Amino acid sequence: LPRPGSAALKAAPRPGVANAKGGYDHRHAAKVAREDEHFHVKHVSLDVGRAIQKARQDKAMSQKDLGTKVNEKQTVIADYEQGKGQPNQQVLAKLERALGVKLRGRDIGEPLAVRSARRAMSPGAKQ
C-alpha cells in the first residue's frame, strides 16, 4: 500500500480548477471567452402592458393594490406594464381574472367572456 502523501495517491490535476501551487487552467477560461452565444429573454408586449395599465386605472387601483390582489409584488406589476416582465402564464391568468380583461392570445384588452353564461348554454349544464 502506498503511504499517505506519496505520488501514487495524488490525483491528476483537473482542468479549470486551481491547483495547490495556485496555478489555473487557462484553457477553460479561453473557451468561455470564445463562446459567443447570445441569449434573448422574451418580454411581455407593450400592448399587454398598456392593457394592464388601462384596466387597472379604470378600476381605480394602484400597482400595489393590484399586486396585493394577485399576490405579486408591485415591481412585477410595474415590469409588466412597462413591457419588461418575462411572460409567466400563471401571473397573466391571475391578472386577467383580477382585471377582467384578456391579456393572452387575440383581442388583448377586451373584456373577459362571462363563464357562467357559457356554462348555462352548454348541453350538459345542470339547472
Give short descriptive properties of this protein.
127 residues; mainly alpha; 44% helix; elongated
Shape: elongated
Number of strands: 0
Q: Decide which structural class fits the backbone.
A: mainly alpha
End-to-end gap: 85 Å
Alpha-carbon Rg, integer: 28 Å
Topology pattern, helix = H, strand = E: HHHHHH
How would a textbook summarize the main sheet?
A: none
DSSP helical segment count: 6
State the low-pLDDT regions, or none.
none
What share of residues is helical?
Answer: 40-55%
What is the beta-strand fraction? Answer: under 5%
Mean pLDDT: 79
In short:
With 127 residues, the chain is an all-alpha fold.
Set down the secondary structure blueprint:
Elements: H1 26-34, H2 46-58, H3 63-69, H4 74-82, H5 89-99, H6 115-121
Fold and architecture overview:
- Helix 2 (46-58) crosses helix 4 (74-82) and helix 3 packs across helix 4 (74-82).
- The radius of gyration is 28 Å and the shape is elongated.
- The chain is mainly α.
- It has helices at 26-34, 46-58, 63-69, 74-82, 89-99, 115-121.
